[in-house]
Amino acid sequence: MLSILSKTWILFFGYAIICLGHGLQGTLVGVRAVLEDFSFISAGIIITGYYIGYLLGSLIIPILLKKVGHIRVFAALASLASIAILMHSVFIDPYIWCLIRVFTGISIAGIFVIMESWLNEKSTNETRGSLLSVYMIITFVFMGLGNFLLNLSDPSKVDLFILVSVLLSFALIPILLSSSNPPSFEKTKRLTFFELYKLSPLGFVGALMIGLAHSTLFGLGAVYAKSRGFGNFEVSFFLVVITIFGSLFQWPVGYISDKIDRRIVLIIVTLIASGISLLIIISSYISIFLLFILLAFYAGMSLPMYSLTIAHTNDYLQPEEIVPASSAIAVLVGGGAIFGPLIASYFMTVLGSNGFFLFLFIIHLFLGLFGIYRMAMRTKPADIESQYVVLPRTLTPTGMELNPKAEQDNSYFGEDNFFEKK
Cα–Cα distance between 73 and 78 in angstroms, integer? Predict the structure, then answer.
C-alpha cells in the first residue's frame, strides 16, 4: 500500500487542491447569488446548470479520454474550470451563470473521472479499498476546508473568484509534472434503468431521491443559509457541518447495516432525516446553535443513504455485477440531482427560505414510506455476501470500479442473460 501511495501521492496532492477550490466555489456562487438579489428560482437554475454539466461530463469525458489521452484532457478541463469561475464576476446574470456552471460541471466531473481511472489503474484487488478510503478522506476534508476560504475576502468582490481560479490552475502543476504513466482507459459498463429497477426497485427510487436531496443540500445550502441572514463564517460552517458529520456517520451506519436487514437501516435513517428536517425549520426561529446541532444529525442520517442504497442493491448481485449496477445508480443520482435545486427553489419561492427543509422533509418521507412498502413486497436474500462500503457522493461511474467488493473483470450481462442469472 505504501509503495502505491509513494507513486500516487502527487496525484492526490493535485486532487486535494482541486477539492479545495471546488469546495469554495460552490459556496461562493450561492452566497453571491443572494448578494446579487437573484430570486430563489434563479439560484435553482444556476445550481441545476452545474449538475447538468456534471452528468454530461461523467458520460462524455470517457469518450474523449480514449481519443486524446488523460494528460491533455486533464489540462484542458482544469483550464476550462479556471476560466469559467472568473466569468461569474464579469457577467452578473443568472442565465449566463447557469451556462457557466454547465461548463464547470463538465470540467469537475471530467477531472474526477480522470483521477478515478488513474487510481483504478494503480490499484489491485488488495489495495482498492485503501485507495478508495484515501480518496474519500481527501474529498471530504478538502471540500470542507474550501468552504472556510469564503472568509478570506468579501464575496461581493472578485477576490474569491480569482482565488478559486488560482487553486484550479495550481492543481495542474503537480499532476502534469508527474512521472506516473497515464492509464489505458476502458469505458465503464452500466445496466439500463429498466434492468436496475427490475433488479432493485428500492435501489432505483433511492438513487433518484438521493439525487434530489443531496443536490439541494449542497447546491442550495449556501443560498438557504445566506437568505436566513447568516454571516459568511456561519454560511461556511453550515456546509462544513454537513460535510464532516455526513462523513463521520458513514461508519456506524454502515456497521449496523451489515448486521441487520439493510432496508430497515435505510428506512430508519431516512425517516429520522425527515423528522429532523421539520425540527430544523422550528429551530431556525429559536437558536442558530440548536439549528447547527440538528443539522449535524440530519447530515449524519442523510449522507450515508448513498452508500446504503448501493450496498442494498449489491445484496442482490454477484461481485462481477456490482460495477455496472453501481454505475447505473450513479447516473440515476445525477439525473435526480438536475431537478432537485429547481424543485426546491420553487418551494423556497412559495414558502420562504424554510421551503428548503420542507422539500427535504418530503423527499426523505417518501423514500422511507417506499422502503416500508418494498419490505412488504420482497423478503431479504438468505445468502447476502455484500458489505457496506463508504463511497463519496462525488464518485463518478468510473470510480465505482474502486469498490473493493467488485470483481476487477467487470463483465456485463446483456438484458436477456442478466435476467436469466437472476
Answer: 9
CA–CA distances in Å: residue 296 to residues 168, 240, 301: 29, 10, 9
* Helices and strands in the chain: count of H runs, count of E runs: 18, 0
Structural contact between residues 406 and 389, judged by C-beta atoms closer than 8 angstroms = no
Q: Can you give the pLDDT at residue 364?
A: 97
**pLDDT number for residue 180:** 58
CA 225 to chain centre: 20
Contact between 120 and 403 under an 8 Å Cβ cutoff? The reply is no
Q: Assess if residue 65 is contained within a domain.
A: yes
Is 2 a domain residue? no
Predicted local distance difference test score (pLDDT) of residue 402: 66
Closest alpha carbon to 223 in 372, 125, 387, 94: 94
Which phi-psi region, left, alpha or beta, contains residue 276 (left: φ > 0; alpha: ψ -120 to 50)? alpha
**DSSP notation for 302-331:** HTTHHHHHHHHHHTTS-GGGHHHHHHHHHH
With 0.70 as the threshold, say if the pTM is over it.
Answer: yes
User: How many beta carbons lie within 10 A of that of residue 69, not counting itself?
Assistant: 12
Q: Give the three cell numbers for residue 201.
A: 426497485
Mean pLDDT, all residues of the chain: 84
Domain assignment of residue 43, given as a range: 7-177+186-421
Average pLDDT over residues 324-336: 85
Q: What is the DSSP letter of 397?
A: G
Mean pLDDT computed over 89-109: 92
Domain membership of residue 1 (yes or no) is no
- Residues 6 or more apart whose CB falls under 8 angstroms from that of 314 comprise 322, 325, 326, 386, 405
Residue 212 C-beta-side C-alpha neighbours within 13 Å = 22
Q: Is the pLDDT of residue 290 over 50?
A: yes
User: What is the spatial distance between Cα 221 and Cα 53, in angstroms, rounded to a whole number?
Assistant: 19
Domains identified in the chain, total number: 1
Q: What is the pLDDT of residue 230?
A: 93
Q: What percent of the chain has pLDDT over 90?
A: 47
- The distance of Cα 14 from the centroid of its chain, to the nearest Å, equals 19
Report CA torsion sign: 299, 304, 306, 308.
negative
Spatial distance between the Cα atoms of 323 and 177, rounded to a whole number of angstroms: 31
pLDDT grade, residue 419 (50/70/90)? Answer: very low
C-alpha cell of residue 392: 463519496
Over residues 49-55, the mean pLDDT reads 92
Collapsed DSSP state (helix, strand, coil) of residue 216? helix
Q: Is 315 among the domain residues? A: yes
CATH of the domain at 313: 1.20.1250.20
